[in-house]
Amino acid sequence: MRIYLVQHGLAEDKSKDESRPLSAQGLEDITRVAGFLSLFEKPQPHLIIHSDKLRAQQTAKMIGETWQVSQMQESQALAPNADPQLWVSRLKEMTEDVLLVGHLPHLSRLVSLLVQGDAEVKTVAFRHAGVLCLEKSEAGFHILWQINPTLFYGEDRT
Q1: At what angle do helices 24-40 and 54-67 cross, to 10 degrees?
Q2: pLDDT at position 7, please?
Q3: Between the CA of residue 60 and those of 44, 50, 116, 138, 140, what are the distances in Å?
Q4: How far is residue 102's CA from residue 5's CA, in Å, rounded to a whole number?
Q5: CA 50 to CA 57: how far, in whole Å?
Q6: How is domain 2-153 classified at the CATH fold level?
Q7: Rounded to whole angstroms, how far apart are CA atoms 122 and 110?
Q8: Dist. CA 7–CA 5, nearest whole Å
Q9: Is the pTM of this model over 0.90?
Q10: Which residues contact 107 (CB under 8 A, 6 or more apart)?
């Protein structure tokens, strides 16, 4: 089973729009990353689960369209400060590939908990519109690969 963790694309500043939709850069980054992966990795998550924030919903929808995943759910358990332990339990029970679209620090803490058993140990650096792929085995969870928009720009724009 594979678990794809995605930090939402870059959002508009709160002073510009309270709902914080994806910015033009965020839209471009998601388009590039999702398109690149659909050409080479062929991710096939059975389900996409996203937070209730607009930027996460938009990110999930764009990835779902590109990867042809129609089943989506919203979860408040993917909020920025949600308890990652809820997902550890849930992911251990799942058997089909899933994609989670969320926020920091939640995603970072979740990966650390899954891979190292400690939410406080920094395991990976997420970037807006980046995708981290974990694989679940009998031994637990391990990082399979990670891709960020910096692949396309050669610099970190977020």
Answers
A1: 30
A2: 98
A3: 14, 6, 27, 29, 26
A4: 8
A5: 6
A6: Rossmann fold (3.40.50)
A7: 10
A8: 7
A9: yes
A10: 5, 7, 100, 126, 132
